[in-house]
Structures are given as structure tokens and as C-alpha cells.
Amino acid sequence: MRRSRTFLFALVLLISGCRNSTGSRDGEPDADPDGELERGLGESLDASLDGTDADTGRVRFVRNPDNPLYRSSGQIWDYAGIGDPSVLYDSTDVLFKAWLSVGGRLDAAGPLAVRTGALVSYDGVAWQQVPGGPVFKEGAKGEWDQGGVETVCVLREANNYLLYYGAYREAKDPPVGMQIGVATSSDGVHWERSPQNPVLPPGKPGAWDQSWVESPTVIHLGDTYYMWYSGVDWSRASFAIGLATSPDGVTWTRHPANPVFSAEPSNSWENGAVYAPSVVYDGHRFVMFYVGLNDATFLDEMRIGMATSPDGVNWTREPSNPVLDPGPPGAWDEKGPFVPSVLIKDGVYYLYYLSGSNPNEAIGLSTWTP
User: Fold this and answer.
1) What's the domain count of the chain?
2) Which of 84, 93, 190, 195 measures 20 to 30 Å from 130, CA to CA?
3) What backbone phi and psi angles, to 5 degrees, belong to 118?
4) Which residue, among 236, 301, 243, 294, has the nearest Cα to 264 in the 3D structure?
């Protein structure tokens, strides 16, 4: 469903089927001798912070003028395309950091698979690869995640990072049996899988998420971890969003009200499916951004919607939805934004998204100041 899987399966059918240009230590960005990253928010972002429309009250996410911000590097490990961005601002390192799906090979004779790459940025606009290729790879032969890892969500804790990811034993279309796992890291580059993986399997037979689960988005609030995720019942072509909670980020319990967010038949732009949530907490409420698909056009025309909730279970859609439409004809994102990753910094909502046709997907940015 996500674009990373789309390019992988396309290539699998056809064939059968991070390193910077300058050196630096693992996990550290290169120096910026040309000052390219020092453009700062003033030049690149001010033009896009239009906020809520004063006349209509409509939430206005405005595209960054530098879009698209990042494409595949064309190296062997990401030549097949990119997808599924997960972006955060690390106040300790004073850096924007991103993890994303990358499709390719580790060497010429190696298998084609989806893995996880990493990027860093001083301003959230100009991005550099973390050196060394993918920072998180498929599991060892025989493991539940040996087929590939994707749809990641990275959470920054006080002393470490948590990486939640979707994975499968065998890459296939559709990815029936896909499950969610977790890994930890002290630096966001070197990861250790939890021995309790997978931490969220598909639902029981007959459940709304019986076929596969993926696209986790996780928040740690108080004593509770909240995970919203995409769940699929392939027998009914049903895609919806569920919630699970955990006291430790590893042991998860599905909410009895699942799915907590479903397609809305009365809204033509999202009557086919809702998918790939990204949830933030603004200090008072949960705010979800999600992909809406039309039942007729499906992946040929995607939009992003917004909803709010006091408890993460009961959601109210933004009246001015969708908050981000497809780009104009001929634009790199003319088929619409997909796979949102949202963060809030200094009161500004940064909405990163994927668009484009494989293997030429790219990542863009839109912003909104309430």
C-alpha cells in the first residue's frame, strides 16, 4: 500500500522480484563548507507559513518553494526508490532527523529489498544522507522480518531512540502477514531489535486487521505509549486505522473500539480508504494526519486529511479537509501527497510527505501555523 512496497513489488515482477559524497564519522553530518544548509528558516520557510485562511477559516498547508526536498541518491542501495519518511526534530543535537524506506541492493549480487536509510538537516529543508548506506536492514535468514523492513516511525526518548517498523518474512503483493516490530538505538544509526518481536501481529481471523498491520505512529505521553497503525482486511479490501497502547513501548494491547478511524462514505476524496496515519500531540489534544483515497481513483489521486481527538479514540475530522491536495498538472506531486510525517516546532506544523511515481518518488514539505 505504501509507495515503498509499490516500487518493490513492481521490480520483483519485472525481474522474476547512506553514504554522503564526502566523508564523515558514522551518524554525523558532514561540514557545510558552501553554506548550503545555512539558508535557515527565514529564506526557505517564511514564504510557506501562511497559516489559517483569515477569510474562510480553512487550514492552509502551503508547499515549500524548494520542493521536492529529497530524491533517491541513485546508489545501489536506494536506486529502486524511496518512501515512508519519519521525521523528528532532535533538540539535543539541534538537528532535524529523518528515516525513510529505501529500495535496492547492498551489493551487486545481493537481494533486492526495502531497508531504512537516514538523513539529517539543519533547517528541515536541505537534507544530507547519514553515511554508510541503510542504517536498518532486513532480519537474518529464518527470522520473521527477513523479507524487508519499511513504514518506520522513530520516537526520540530521553536516552535512546525507538524505531517501530513493518516487516514480513517474504516480500509479496499483497503483503499478507506483515507485522510490526521495534528496535532501540542510542544514536539513531545502530539498532538492536527487541527479543519480543514482533510486538504487534495481524488481528485474529475475521478481525478488521486480520490480513496485515503496518505504518505505526507512536507517541509516549505520561505512563502510556500510544500506537496508531494501518490495519487491513484484504478479503474485504478494507483499510482502516487502529489504536494500541502499551506501558513500556513493547507489550501492546489493542483498543476494544478498533478501528478508531475509518473511511467516510460521504466524503468522495476519502470514501475508498484511510491510511498511513501520523499523530502528534499539541499539548491539549491529539492531531492526526492521514491519507484519504477515493474509491474510484485510489492511488492515482491521493489527499491528506486532518482530525483531532481528546483521547486518541474519538476523532473529529477537520471541516476544511482535505488539508493538502494534489499538486497542479505536471507538478512532481500531481498525483497527490502520500505517507505524511508531521512534527510541531515553535508552533509550526511541518508536514513531510511522499509523492511521485516509482522509482522517482521524492519527499516534499508543507507547513501550517495555526
Assistant:
1) 1
2) 195
3) -140, 150
4) 294
